[in-house]
Specification:
about 550 residues, alpha/beta, Rossmann fold, binds adenosine-5'-triphosphate, ATP binding, AAA+_ATPase, Xylose import ATP-binding protein XylG, nucleotide-binding
């Protein structure tokens, strides 16, 4: 294979003013009509957002455009030419690239190796690595990406890993770039950088961006045009100029949505979760390095931080998944070891990786709703015999209460859309009536109506005495839901801020170590002005 010529930032003459035209796309799955006669036009040089509730059919539509799923019927037209895609390779050949929510990178390979994987330039029968490396370095420079072509991908922060994913598509000459919830794991600064590239370089050079997002303020900020899908149908396409989060939310959900969490000040009681000087070993250094804090019954303590700063390991230690090297964790005054004992102490856990830890993807909805409780009352009798009618009713009731769609007790968990899968986990964990809830990214990928519901369920449980530890990469969520906010940086608590005084800028600075020393910084190391510059900013979500 010769080296792809990928000067996607130099303008080309397009055949048609429209990059992508979808005509009557329908996709039928056994239980649902995921896309129902959808038509949509995306113009060259524009950023086009695709919004809609969980399960509305956004990812399905984009997978069809990317050739990873065939439509049941309908037509795709790229730059004026009707196309049929049998695989992503066909779509890539027509200049379409897609960046998925779950990165598809090989952690042990370098940036260059990942970028060229499957499209390696060859010299005779061997890979011309030197030429590839030179090309990747040129592209990194051209796009202004802050990336080392020789860095091992597994050691990079998520923001840079995402750039590798984008680079992969640009290296292959993508002129239409699809991104599925690209900012879910980024810091505010990384998000700004990404948007600047997409809008001011990539789209400005005449390419097209389609991006799926549940974050409406971002949608309004970056896009030129917004299409909204509901229940598989196209509700409408509007210009971003003049739209508001309220109008968009209403178009998506079909009713008015409260965008701010309604909660009264917390009324903290006794200590429920006590973490003292906890150290958890990481691969090279301590992942959690002497962390201490308490969460009381009746309060929500949020942990903000860039992913990879020890939050995951801290959660795994608290939930009994990882051993604690030193220090102590107590639950309602008692210590516990391992997942079972921790659970028995009244701890529920919403895990950050729903596919790996939260669900058994090929098991049914009803079975997933009782994971961890399948051997005991109320779901099993004394001899371990399953009470199938109770299990079935439990699934029906929870799916109804948490609006998990489609309503099915037998659907394998792997067939739910991302947000509905998340609602299933939240429903299961809240049903247990925990005393302590460890919620990692509880609304990642969840739509605005469901976020409203999950947040109000958590607040209601807090008011009844639940102690909540919230870990979220979504700063808006941390600021909206928490009563107190701790910031984690390089395995340590870099500071604490009352939620009422927090702003995105201030937290963002602390999260990247710029707000204070890298060590066990005190809140005073971040200037109050940085933490609470604009109240308005804190209320953006
Ligand atoms: N492989 C599949 N088999 C069966 N049903 C599926 C499959 N993939 C998606 N669906 C269903 O199609 C519908 C649309 O799902 P899709 O993932 O496109 O929604 P979405 O709008 O991207 O949602 P989210 O915001 O939650 O990611 C959902 O009801 C989902 O359960």
């Amino acid at each position: 294979m010769t080296l792809p010529q990928t000067d996607v930032l130099s303008e080309v003459r397009h055949q048609s003013p429209t990059a992508l035209e979808l005509r009557g796309i329908t996709k039928r799955f056994p239980l649902v009509l995921a896309n129902d006669n959808i038509s949509m036009d995306v113009g060259w040089g524009s950023v086009h957002a695709l919004c809609g509730e969980n399960g509305a059919g956004k990812s399905t539509l984009m997978k069809i455009v990317y050739g990873s799923q065939p439509p049941t019927s309908g037509e795709i037209i790229v730059d004026g030419q009707p196309v049929t895609f049998n695989s992503p390779a066909d779509a890539i050949a027509r200049g379409i690239g897609m960046v998925f929510q779950h990165f598809q990178l090989v952690d042990t390979l370098t940036v260059t190796e990942n970028v060229i994987l499957g499209a390696e330039p060859t010299q005779g029968t061997s890979i011309n690595y030197g030429a590839a490396r030179k090309r990747v370095a040129e592209l990194v420079k051209q796009f202004g990406f802050d990336l080392d072509p020789d860095a091992v991908v597994g050691e990079l922060p998520v923001g840079q890993q995402q750039k590798v994913e984008i680079l992969k598509t640009l290296y292959r000459g993508a002129r239409i770039l699809i991104l599925d919830e690209p900012t879910a794991v980024l810091t505010p600064a990384e998000t700004d950088e990404l948007f600047d590239f997409l809008k001011n370089q990539y789209a400005k050079s005449g390419n097209a961006v389609i991006f799926i997002s549940h974050k409406l303020h971002e949608v309004l900020h970056i896009s030129d045009t917004i299409s909204v899908i509901r229940d598989g149908k196209m509700i409408g396409t509007i210009p971003a100029a003049g739209a508001t989060t309220e109008t968009l939310a209403k178009m998506m959900v079909g009713r008015d949505v409260t965008l701010k969490v309604n909660k009264t000040p917390a009324n903290p009681r006794e200590v429920a979760l006590d973490v003292q000087n906890v150290v958890v070993k990481g691969e090279h250094k301590n992942a959690v390095d002497g962390v201490s804090f308490q969460v009381r019954a009746g309060e929500i303590v949020g942990i903000a931080g860039v992913e990879g700063n020890g939050q995951s390991e801290l959660v795994e230690a608290i939930t009994g998944l990882l051993p604690v090297q030193s220090g102590q964790i107590t639950y309602l005054g008692k210590s516990a070891k391992g997942v079972k004992e921790v659970e028995a102490s009244g701890v529920s856990h919403i895990p950050e990786d729903r596919n790996e830890r939260g669900l058994v993807l090929d098991m049914s909805t009803a079975e997933n709703y009782i994971l961890g409780e399948q051997d005991r009352e109320p779901f099993a009798g004394p001899l371990g015999l399953l009470k199938l009618d109770v299990i079935e009713k439990n699934a029906r009731d929870l799916s109804e209460e948490y609006d998990v769609r489609p309503r099915s007790t037998s659907l394998p968990a792997g067939s739910y859309s991302g947000g509905n899968a998340q609602k299933l986990i939240v429903a299961r964990e809240m049903r247990k009536g925990p005393k302590i809830l460890v919620a990692s990214q509880p609304t990642r990928g969840v739509d605005i109506g469901a976020i409203e519901f999950i947040h109000s369920s958590i607040v209601k449980a807090r008011d009844q005495g639940l102690a909540v530890l919230l870990i979220s990469a979504d700063l808006g969520e941390v600021m909206n839901l928490s009563d107190r906010i701790l910031v984690m940086y390089e395995g340590k608590i870099a500071g604490e801020v009352p939620a009422a005084q927090a702003t995105e800028t201030g937290l963002g600075l602390m999260m990247t170590g710029s707000g204070g020393a890298a060590g066990q910084a005190s809140p005073a190391q971040v200037s109050p002005a940085q933490i609470s510059t604009t109240q308005q900013e804190g209320e953006r979500q």
